[in-house]
Specification:
InterPro entries: AAA+_ATPase (IPR003593), AAA_lid_NorR (IPR058031), Homeodomain-like_sf (IPR009057), HTH_Fis (IPR002197), P-loop_NTPase (IPR027417), PAS (IPR000014), PAS-like_dom_sf (IPR035965), PAS_4 (IPR013656). The protein has about 475 residues and is of the alpha/beta class. Helix content is about 45%, strand content about 15%. The protein has a 5-stranded antiparallel beta sheet, sandwiched between helices. The N terminus is likely disordered. The structure holds adenosine-5'-triphosphate.
Length: about 475
């Protein structure tokens, strides 16, 4: 061994050393071969000749190695003197993991190369390869999420999936809205993609590089809404922070402010919002100074604002300010033709970063069309996720797998739930909660106020939970 270190002229693999190591490598590997400096075979062991399917190993001695092993890189090793420590070589549709080393004479000149087949079967490497693939997928997903976070949005127009005439019309209007710096009102039932669209409009607008700030009016307690919107001046009230606290208007300055569930805005705040929009100025709580703001407003609601105006719970002047460009998003039941592409996109999202490949058969998609989807695409996502969890046939969802989890007129076929493997308690509790929420929404035909009452929770808690389910 010391020869390896004493010999300074090259990395020092002498013929003697190679000969000493040969028996050990030969035994441990699935085959070994040696070539001279002209890359002609000088030696091959029996296991390699069997692996290559040769009848008589003696017949290949003296032949150029590429004639016998077309994809070998031994000539390259002989020419460059650089070992190829790990390589995958294809031979007769077989993948061989090989290592190739040059060897030298006593004067330090290359006299040939040796190669060993480390594995003739990649099976033992499968865990390593799949771990590598998983890490690679995680990295890609993290990079994608980071890129979107940097823009302040998670969605772009491509994320609004659908090719039906109804979906295309929505996208056409969204593009139109993006090109004009004017307020937009998005109308649609719960889970139809109003937030997806709001973010997409921002992402393709001239304000894309500026912040996108969203606020859900129904999720913020009424007494905190004003501070949330307009911010708080230092020491505005007892217990208030000594520092200025910016409101959503200041945070969105230069960018887009998304008002989700605008129909839930209390009347006093409606008056203040109207003033802010008319004057382009806001007054933080406890301050007597006005601050100029420049935001593009996108509002959304699942409620009938015209009916609210009629009963006096929504100001008509604010409605006309917000509704400069209106985009109506149809419920899923009116664009069932999009079910196939939606399933493909949602299953892709659900499985991203996991070792799952969710797919659905045509019969599975047809089964989904039997339902009227009060919770729309959010509910579709949850149904697919549950079907995958319950699926006993791998990752392919057929009609049976769908019918097992599809709500039937608000009633779930609880008795049909098959026995399945024990899962973490938190996951079981989360699924049960999602199921209860969906059942309540189905029973109340998507009316969240009623659903929250039925579940015995506040609307804001229901919103929080729905946001987590998205
Ligand atoms: N057209 C669509 N294509 C792909 N995914 C969609 C689409 N619409 C909605 N989703 C998905 O459905 C879920 C709910 O979407 P989103 O929050 O935008 O709905 P929403 O109409 O704002 O609901 P809510 O009124 O309850 O806030 C999200 O997971 C979103 O990714």
């Amino acid at each position: 061994m010391s020869e390896l270190f004493i010999n300074k002229n090259k990395s020092g693999l002498t013929r003697n050393l190679i000969e000493a190591l040969f028996p050990m490598f030969e035994e441990a590997s699935a085959g070994a071969i040696a070539v001279d400096r002209d890359s002609q075979i000088t030696w091959i062991n029996t296991s390699y000749s069997h692996l290559l399917g040769l009848d008589d190993a003696a017949k290949v001695i003296g032949k150029p190695v590429r004639q016998v092993i077309p994809h070998t890189r031994m000539p390259e090793v002989v020419q460059t003197g650089k070992p190829l420590l790990l390589d995958i070589m294809e031979h007769n549709q077989q993948q061989l993991v090989v290592t190739r080393l040059p060897y030298y004479d006593e004067a330090g000149a290359i006299v040939g190369a040796v190669a060993f087949v480390l594995y003739d079967d990649l099976q033992p490497l499968t865990p390593l390869v799949s771990k590598y693939r998983r890490l690679h997928q995680d990295l890609a997903a993290a990079r994608k999420a980071l890129a979107k976070k940097a823009r302040g949005t998670r969605y772009s127009l491509g994320d609004f999936v659908g090719g039906s005439p109804e979906a295309l019309e929505v996208k056409r209007k969204a593009r139109l809205a993006a090109g004009r710096d004017m307020p937009v009102l998005l109308l649609g039932e719960t889970g139809t993609g109003k937030e997806v669209l709001a973010q997409a409009i921002h992402a393709v607008s001239a304000r894309a590089e500026k912040p996108f700030v969203g606020v859900n009016l129904a999720a913020v307690p009424e007494n905190l809404l004003e501070a949330e919107f307009f911010g708080v001046a230092p020491g505005a009230y007892t217990g208030a922070d000594r520092r200025t606290r910016d409101g959503k208007f200041q945070l969105a300055n230069g960018g887009t402010l998304f008002l989700d569930e605008v129909g839930d805005m209390p009347l006093p705040l409606q008056a203040k919002l109207l003033r802010a929009l008319q004057e382009g100025e806001i007054e933080p709580l406890g301050s007597n100074k006005v601050v100029s703001v420049d935001v593009r407003l996108i509002a959304a609601t699942s409620r009938n604002l015209e009916a609210m105006i009629a009963d006096g719970s929504f100001r008509s002047d604010l409605y006309y300010r917000l509704n400069v460009l209106e985009v109506s998003i149809p419920p899923l039941r009116e664009r069932l033709g999009d079910l196939g592409v939606l399933c493909e996109a949602l299953l892709g999202e659900i499985c991203e970063g996991q070792d799952l490949r969710g797919e659905i058969t045509d019969a599975g998609v047809a089964a989904l069309a039997n339902y009227d989807w009060p919770g729309n695409i959010r509910e579709l996502r949850n149904v697919l996720e549950r079907a995958l969890t319950m699926s006993e046939d791998g990752d392919l969802l057929d009609a049976d797998a769908i019918f097992k989890v599809l709500p039937k007129g608000g009633q779930r076929p609880v008795a049909q739930t098959p026995a399945r493997a024990v899962r973490p308690l938190a996951r079981i509790v989360a699924d049960a909660e999602a199921q209860a929420i969906e059942e309540a929404l189905v029973a109340c035909r998507g009316n969240r106020t009623k659903a929250a009452r039925l579940l015995g929770i506040s609307r804001s808690v229901l919103y929080e939970k729905l946001a987590k389910m998205s």
